[in-house]
Amino acid sequence: MYQAIHYNENGAMADRLSYLQRHDIVYCRPALRPYDGLPVGTGDSGGLLYQSAYGLEMTVNHADALDYAPDGPMSAWAWEAEEHQTVPVSCGHLSIRASMPIFDWVYLERFEQRLMLAAAEITGRAETPFSTAAWKVYAPQDPGVLAVEFTIRCDEPVELDILMDKWPSPHFIHHYEQILHTHNERINTVKTHAHDDRILVTQDLGRCKTALAATCQGSAEIVNSHAARFRFPRQTEHAFTLYVAARAEETDDAARNAMLALDSITDAHSIREKHRARWRTFWNQSFIHLQENDYLENLYYIHLYQLGCSSLGRNPLTFAGLWGWFRDSRNWGHFYHWNHQQTYWGLHAAGHSELLANYLDYRFRMLPHAKEDAKRLFGVDGAFYSDISNLNGCNAIEPDTVRNLSVGLQIALDFYRHVRYTMDTAFLKEKALPVMTACADLYLNLMQEREGKLYLRGGSTPLESYWNLALTLPDQVLLRSVLRALMDVSEAYTLGLPVEHYRDVLEHLPPLPTETVSHNGEELEIFSAGVSWDGRTVPYAGGEYPLSPFPATLFSPVWPGEWIGLGKESEREFAVMRNTAR
Q1: With bands split at pLDDT 50, 70 and 90, how would you rate the model's confidence at 7?
Q2: Distance (Å, rounded) from C-alpha 178 to C-alpha 560?
Q3: At what angle do helices 406-422 and 473-493 cross, to 10 degrees?
């Protein structure tokens, strides 16, 4: 596989799919803990494949399966809101189980399971003194199903069951400090169905309906109100292909659409070939080769694979994405700007703008709420995006973080980068421009003049910090970048924006705050996190958490501010940034 990269006088030549083998994940023993399972997904549904002693297991999730709370401003940390928030939920659990311990480590003579990145397939083989099992799992986007090919040969006849169930549970968002003893959470929302070669498990959460449907060659039967199964009689060999379709809708169509997906399966070979073709195209868009840095390559390829499996639903990914494994437990189940934004930062550079389309759409859908909150909280027109929001698109308004104003500017730059990458004029006018101008307007309408310079009325906090300052470095560089971006698109697309006003604001912003420090016997001018209300510059590492600058504050001129880059190498600000990094 290491011969996949060759060089000639023109540079590197690559057999890209062969090269990816070096980044396959290979297990030489079963993943007996669910969170060690391997990810597989269609783009909007999937889960982690792991082993129990007796078979294969997976909790199946869908990006749009949500237990909604009412719309309106939310409280992320209040006790009275616990177990009443909008939270992703599972569609159900899948278990393929033999009547002997085919994966118990006590008996395993050989075991290998491989996540093949190039084909987006999981293959495995296990041998014990009494059984040989082999499996292949993949998730074709068209028709949106999970496919499991499974064979087993045993020394004596064994029964085989495929069980599919859904048992709702509490969400445990703040599992470390705010656990309510709620033992009947949504228990009565589930129904099961079995007919011929189909089983179906549905859940009605009111605003959202979920369905998990499966077809196989076994005999289908209802187990109870929450479970159905396929049963295979006692025999020495079993071989089957199981197809599972997960759907989540805000209408009553989830069950019908899941069944239609199964109906569309007529040619397994064709489905698999289309699946492989999709991933060939996927990897051809994003190939990299980093000499002598396998570790970064691993991170890059695994990250892209996981997003390719999971970032094509209507909603962006919260913590754990589709990889939740313990019923409906969703620790930290909200959408956290500071924690989730970096999931999407590198996707344009990797050639996969489609994988952040749902994130941008989510932020656009939030815009009406963000405008309402700007008016309600600050009394001005504009858009306020909080650090924490839910998948209703409603902000969490927390007293300590309500002055984290720069979230909106960072989101505005995400939209701008997407426009630069796609050159999509319709997206610019319909979505990017409304978000960018509204986020800028919040700042412009909060400006007040002091000694000929413009400052934010009431101050702001440096990124995720709770420390309110008269002036912060991140807000200053991000506002500069967004105004510059608006000026750029106005000129490029003849939009007629108030460019002269933006230019006037830029000319009257105070200088970026700096300080001088001693470093290895040398006096260096570096950036400061900001200026306190008494007019003093915040010293490096000043304050005590949480009344201290967020650690990334001093790098904000480079990212996410994009104010200082290689194009400014000859300017003073570049030298200050270089000193800051040192």
Answers
A1: low
A2: 33
A3: 30
